[in-house]
Amino acid sequence: MQLYDNIFYLNDLSLKEVYIFVILNSFIKYMIQRIQSIYLFLAALVSAGLLFAIPVYTTAEGNLVYAVDKLELVGLFFGSALLSLITIFFFKNRKLQFVLGRLNIILNFILLGVLVYQSQILSGGAAAPEKGIGMLIPIISIVFIALANKAIKRDEDLVKSVDRLR
Question: Which residue ranges run through the membrane (predicted)?
Fold first, then answer.
């Protein structure tokens, strides 16, 4: 009876909601068992979520500038978030996961450089803008990815030590 109720409930949902449910269910079941998946998910959440809420810098006129206002920043932020999410799904291949984590760190350093450059270029003799807390988003993401890479390395070392014993 319970199986019938679950199937009946799924018929009331749209296809998109069912797809999201299946993805989240498999994510929670299989990949949350490792701490690096949580770190990578937090890095993706920081990269993709905070760019809408936190201003990157304030202009001399007092206007808040969000990352969403600049297309190249949006692409880099979402690229970083997407790379973090893709890295989560390579949980069976730890070496590739580690390499993708390093690539994501490099991407976040590039993003940080672009943010600093964008805040420093001024039209004419305008006063210097104030940097906002949004400049810290790539740094926070780098910290989470570095923690994930450390956990991946620890898992790889554990597997190698067990293989040596066999």
Answer: 39-58, 73-91, 103-121, 133-152
Q: Nearest CA to 134 among 149, 148, 114, 106?
A: 114
Residue 136, judged by CB atoms within 10 A of its CB (0-12, 13-18, 19+), counts as middle
SS (H, E, C) 69-136: HCHHHHHHHHHHHHHHHHHHCCCCCHHHHHHHHHHHHHHHHHHHHHHHHHHHCCCCCCCCCEECHHHH
Residues 78, 48 contacting (CB under 8 angstroms): yes
Number of alpha helices (DSSP H) and beta strands (DSSP E) in the chain = 6, 3
Look at the pTM and tell me if it is higher than 0.70: yes
Strands 130-131, 64-66: parallel, antiparallel or unpaired by DSSP?
A: unpaired
Q: Are 67 and 56 in contact (CB under 8 A)?
A: yes
Domain boundaries, the chain: 1-31, 35-165
Q: Is the pLDDT of residue 68 over 70?
A: yes
CA distances from residue 101 to 18, 39, 49, 88, 135 in whole angstroms, order as listed: 30, 11, 19, 10, 20
Query: Span 110-118, mean pLDDT?
Result: 88
Q: How large is the average pLDDT for residues 93-119?
A: 92
Strand partners, 130: 58
